[in-house]
## 1
Amino acid sequence: MGEIQVVPPVCPVAGLLVSSPALFAQAQQALCGLLGAVQAASPVMAFIHTQYYAEEMGAQLWRQFLVFERLHPAEQLVEWKCASNRWERELGFNGQGGRRVNIDPGYLAPGKLVLASTKDHEHRLYLGRGIYAEVTLRVRNKRFYAWEWTYPDYAEATAFFESGYREYLKKLAGAKPETA
């Protein structure tokens, strides 16, 4: 029999994409009910990186990233993504039947930022219940770096995530690890 592996807790993050800045507060409130208080929020910025969501959500979209205070077990990522899918439906649809809000939960873990997705791709691993995970950013020499598949807005937000990662490492040093 092998030793029990110690799995460190993770720091939840979320990417919010909305069709109206007024929707940030509602999405954040839903997330806080599950993940706890927000430690840091990025500035709200115009989403200009792709037209991928334009047909569904509209041409003018807004982006914000969140880092949460409380550490959680990593295996809760599936639950977070399933909940965010439900909240996207509850926060409503635009006149064309598309979502008004896109919520992408993930986490900071030693050496990486992980995001959940409902879409499969060659760089994503299936977790269960229709949810996949990808390592979106990696840490080298205390800095975040993008992969070839990293979304451009996440690649541009590395300074924000690095700040959250430094706080996460401080918490992790004092946290009692989970066992799996």
## 2
Amino acid sequence: MKLGLRARVAVAFAVLSLMVGGTVSLSTYAFASWYLVNQRDSAALTRAALDSRAADAALAAGIPPSQALVSIPSVGTSQPMLRVDGTWYTAGVTVPPDALPADLLTQAQNGGATQRTTVGGDPYYVVAIPVTGGVYVEVFPMRDLDQILVWGGWTLVALTLIAGIFGAVIGATAVGRLLRPVRRLGVAAQRIAGGELGTRIELTGDRDLDPIADSFNDMAGAVQARIARERRFSGNVSHELRSPITAALGTAELLEARIERLPEREASLVGVLAQQVRRMSQMLLDLLEISRIGSDDPPQWENADIAALCREVVEMRGLDVAMVTGDEPIARTDARRFERIIGNLVDNAQNHGTGLVRVSIDANDTSFRIKVDDAGPGVDEAVRERLFEPFARGNAAHRTQGAGLGLAIALEQSHVLGGNLWVESSPEGGARFVAELPITEEAS
């Protein structure tokens, strides 16, 4: 799964922080380890040299080796030893003489030697210096220094991980602030796509982002103005055509009323004329309605019995009200717009779906769905995308019935009521149109 931009930037900051923190920590540990070990070795060598001089002076004065060791001042936890005439003398038993490296004593005869060794799992630093009649050996424990280095190393590892976490947080926060204006653009674009054409982005005074917001607002204003012009044009054309179409419809109906008196040929022409004029009149009414939706005709909100409204729509079309099944929610809606939605869906099922099968209602606490099933052949997947466009038809066999505006009007009315409308396959084998609307008011 591809990560989002914010996650990718956070990961990049985390990796960068880990690399920088790791480099600094590694360098710090290497330098601190080198410095502390060298300081400890230098201090141990200086201490052993001073102690060997004291032991050498005591031996030169004829003091027995055991007493010469006693004369050495006790500082720290080091263990002094003397080897005189092949015999070992020691002030402690932490490190036995036989545990010392054999080559160390050999090298000590040539002016002194130092070596690191491990006894019983503990590290030691051993210094061997030649003295009168033998060798002076002093053993310095290094366990405390190793523990300090281990704890220091783990501390640096923890700090590196913390730096990585802080880097991720800083990266996520920074990109979040950078993406905030982009999200505002996205939200505004979604609202405009949802029909809120008056949406605009507020300027923040940022000289880099405000030009983008200005351009978006100009684009939104141009889209709103163009749609308003198209609606006015459609409304004006429909209004101007209404009077002559009404006159033509009246004349056609008058002739149709006297069709029995006309010859067969003229009667047939009058019948076709009356049918086409009625269709054109209905088309004008639909155009006027679709041009008014969402403009100067706000919804009239009221509490309504959804099931009762559905039964009323079905009954007005001479169908059996038993077709309405399911829940009976009470919703705050515009009854006139709601009846228009359901009426268009029922008409579509009757005219293009070879008959209505069922109107079912499913409700929950926040919304309800009206499912209108027909007995037709269904709607192809390729047609569903454009089925709700004005003048679109799903079945070429029914091109003489309606102007293709009913579903477009139903969709627009659903959006005004805060809902949506779509088509899917029906369990009955035909098409199922689903209108989902909120229980409470959600005016757009």
## 3
Amino acid sequence: MRICDFLIVGAGIVGAALAAEIARRRPGSRVLVVEKEARPAFHQTGRNSGVVHSGVYYTPGSLKARFCREGAELTRAFCTARNIGYDERGKLIVATGEEELPRLEALCRRAAENGVAAVAVDGAAMRRLEPAVAGRAALRIPSTAIVDYAGVTRALLADVENAGGAVMFEAPLRAVAGRGGAYVADVGGRQVEAGRIVACSGLASDRVARLLGIDPGVRIVPFRGEYFVLPPALNAVVRHMIYPVPDPSLPFLGVHLTPMIDGTITVGPNAVLALAREKYGRFSIDPRDALDALAYPGLWRMLARHPKATWKELKGSLSRRIYLESVRRYCPRIGLADLAVYRSANRAQALRRDGTLVDDFLIETAGGVTAVLNAPSPAATSAMPIAARIASDIL
């Protein structure tokens, strides 16, 4: 039987950051990271848009607002120290219609509340910055950057191993039982005794919480985001990240243009209900996942509150031409032939039974076990502050 002081479940960026933080704070402690996949950053971390967010959108005083701002600085410092690509391109949030201008002004006020540097620009100034972008006005966020989050995750796990910790792949958590003041976990058929367990399990966070004896009080409902990539001839069509003005009632930021760290530009994502948590084809179905989602009253209550947005996202998923309309509102140079299928990603969104979306990071602890229950975007940006919070609570 393997014995460790801290068992971290999940080798995405949050789990990797936590393991590295514990190893840094407690030199000599036995830290073990277990991951059910064959490599780290396999799901959300390795499939997101690679944006280091600034924190402009989030409710002032929330964990998202605080940790995003702190996390951007920590991520930049980490990447600089490790020679990991980090490119501070900046973001333009573009109002394309008169009705969006008040929401853009509200975002400008929120940026000030959250301590995020933001510059309001009119249409003429915006076009000087980005000649291919159309709109009435924009909010420029200079600090928004792009990065390779999978590379950051690998570097964090290397820190864990260099400090004497270990990482096990193809090791799913199957069962946990208390034994005295410790826990015995079955990870892929191998027995591990741990003093403390922390689950950073993303799309499986509610299920893993139950294995740990924590009632999550929420259900993870996966939303698939579909991305396209532009042809090399359009790799310079924009320099900034170009975002629409978001709907404040929804947690999704809308279809946007993102220059990637490899030089390509992606378009997306939309947000449609996924019937498989960890499969990414448009028509992928996992019977257990589908039943979990469709039998959950909270899903139907949430969809009933947002019928227009639900229908809009579904139409965009079914028709590339309709999807393109969202993009051409602010970048009319892009045509249908420019959208090549890139990849899809599933967002783990915690949903309450009454149909309300959990808006902030959610972490629960019971005895010697902790579960990260809700850590969607901007969790990748915020991974290091999330890890610091958990480490402070359990050490």
## 4
Amino acid sequence: MADTHVLEPSQAEDEFALEQRLYEESLRTLDEGQVLTGLIVAKTNDELLVDIGGKSEGIVTSRELSPGMSVADLKVGDTLEVLVHRIDGDGDGTLYLSEKRARALKTWTKVLEAHEQNEVVTATVTQVVKGGVLVDLGMRGFVPASQIRRHPVGNLDELVGKQLRLKVIDLDHKRKRVVLSQRVVLEEELNQKKQELLATLQAGQIREGTIVRLADFGAFVDLGGIDGLIHNSELSWSRIKHPSEVVNIGDKVQVEVMKFDPEAKKVSLSLKHSLEDPWKNVPDQLVEGTVVPATLIKVTQNYLLVEILPGVTGMVPKSEFDGRTPPATGETVQVRLLSINVPSRRITASVTKASSNEGGNPEVAEFLASQEAQESSIGDSLEAKSAEPSDATGAPEPPDASTSDS
């Protein structure tokens, strides 16, 4: 039979003291504020028992879980990252752990790194507060209303539940508070697009843009970082009084780059390129010397400007209209086309000659003259016939007998 080793009372006390000392030393290696990964070994309705190192188990109450987490959702065997929140040194050495504090501390470290490296972080808007919104980074962050977008935000409540791309703009290390901005991110992206656009923009290019603003003299188009101007004269072939006659804010348009000043970052654009040039139809529809209706669009002492076809204008010189009683703007007048120069897009017309063929096309004049001559010849013939004597039947009388005898 094997010998059984029996401890003396004093020896047993020494081993118990050693175990007690080793246990206390294991507790002392855990510092408040330390973050560890533990294993859930037991749970109640509102507490978790978490093993964080074999000999050490701590308690996580429901209040120390992050928003959205609950004791009921966790099960025995799950791992949990916790922070040693408090060690009860006056009692039995109970460890009080916190999952939400561990998450906040870890997040704070990430926030510091993102700030140092100027990185973008993503966070969800959780609440609207005075002056801005709160976001969930793993810890709470504040975004001022002026830092949400490049332009003022109307209803902040619409942002709740949405994600923002943010950069840290201010930190309070003592209180671990962070202020963030999405506007900084948007402006940096816009500047990058602007630089890329400046490097590739050239006159003659066709670009897609968005109408962002209307003025009396034209429409402004966002080309993707740079705004260009479409002057009223380049919005339509026809004369317009206001750009709203052609486009509206928010419209997507295909525009042609007319001029580009990279130093001043000014871009002149045209929308007319996408419309059919009305001058292509002029040779088929207008003939010199003819009289056509036209709409008076401008009156000066020296000339009248008339629209003969949509987008096709002509000039009536001072000598070709009565300056004492000129027609009113918008009035329809008859004009004779004196000259048509398609390559230079110039038409000269006359109001005074509209009722005659003076100054008209020679071929037209020759045709009208021949028509008048023919009408005159027919009229003379009819008069001659009507002057001849006739009997009651209308037949001409026979010649006199005495005349025929001689």
